[in-house]
Amino acid sequence: VKKIAVFTSGGDAPGMNAALRAVVRTANHYNLECYGVREGYNGLINNDFTRMGPRSVKNIITEGGTILKSARSLEFKTKEGRQAAYENCKKLGIDALVCIGGDGTFRGANIFNEEFGIKVIGVPGTIDNDIFGTDNTIGYDTALNTAMEAIDKIRDTATSHNRVFFVEVMGRDAGFIALNSGLATGAIDILIPEQKDSIEDLFRTFERAEKAGKASSIVVVAEGEKLGSIYDLAKATKAGFPDYDIRVAVLGHIQRGGSPSCADRVLASQLGYAAVVGLMEGRTNVMAGLKSNQIVYTPIEEAIKKHNEIDPGLLKISEILAI
Ligand code: ADP
């Protein structure tokens, strides 16, 4: 490979900038020409390429979001859109793409590679941690800490007023943020999509907490929880426990923002570097990941089909420690 292009796509995540910096600087180090593409796949279609050198990524390691901007591109889901994207790559002589994003981004990259043969390599950037082939995704650690800090603050007010708080955290169909932020903040219950929950179990937990003399409680709910919306759960609890002073807090997009944590900056640097090196070694249609501190390359098809398992041991520990 001689000329590569890099973009950020799908849901943004803290550390995407650090990954971009690593890609651009590694490319420069190995004398590859590097282009940044704005707004994900839309930039490929709209021919929005900018030549990037080491100075174009100065000062961004500390910044949340993505300086290239991200987008969800409907056009790229069409054959015509991908054809236009390919023509633009060909015109500029791009021979490989570094795709920083989540599973949707990788699905797009996989199809693009199969249709046009252009080399692609994925870098997992999403707060949800739902990508197979890496222990953690870029952005997850920062989001987790943001959720933890927010829930700590909610705990202060919950304790002052003897309230029960239902707190919703992000994660789409995955419960990683909920499980770990719930354990870290001492939630009495953690509801995640990977586990079958029932309202009866939740009620039993409240009864146990009451018996143990707990005056306030926090229940952390993953956004993908299947038992019902957080408002439905709060309503059902009020019906079962009319004396409870119940509040709902949906943490929302604050979890996506902020300066990336040290762990995310290090991970992003390793994976951005690994993506460029992987391309130079002739790899394509794979994702760079970090497993047990080793850089590993997983076929993109596998990364989007499989899922990381949550650790049921953590749920058990949180149950024992919370009450
Ligand atoms: P994420 O990468 O965070 O999972 P999305 O699911 O929005 O975010 O995917 C990002 C972009 O990837 C989409 O907006 C679309 O342009 C592209 N994409 C996703 N799925 C496909 C697909 N099946 N075919 C082509 N492109 C896709």
Explain the overall architecture.
By secondary structure, the chain is α/β, with parallel strands linked by helices. 43% of the residues lie in helices and 19% in strands. The strands form 2 sheets. A 7-stranded mixed sheet has the order 3-2-1-4-5-10-11, with helices on both faces. Strands 7-8-6-9 form a 4-stranded parallel sheet, with helices on both faces. The longest helix is centred in the middle third of the chain and has 22 residues. The mean pLDDT is 97. Bound molecules: adenosine-5'-diphosphate (ADP). Adenosine-5'-diphosphate binds next to helix 4.
**Compute the gyration radius: what is it?**
22 Å
Reading side by side through the largest sheet, how are the strands ordered? 3-2-1-4-5-10-11
Strand fraction band?
15-25%
CA distance, first residue to last residue: 57 Å
Would you tell me the structural class of the helices and strands? Answer: alpha/beta
**String of helices and strands:** EHEHEHEHEHEHEHEHEHEEHH
EC number: 2.7.1.11
GO molecular function: 6-phosphofructokinase activity
Protein name: ATP-dependent 6-phosphofructokinase
Binding site for ATP: 11, 72-73, 102-105
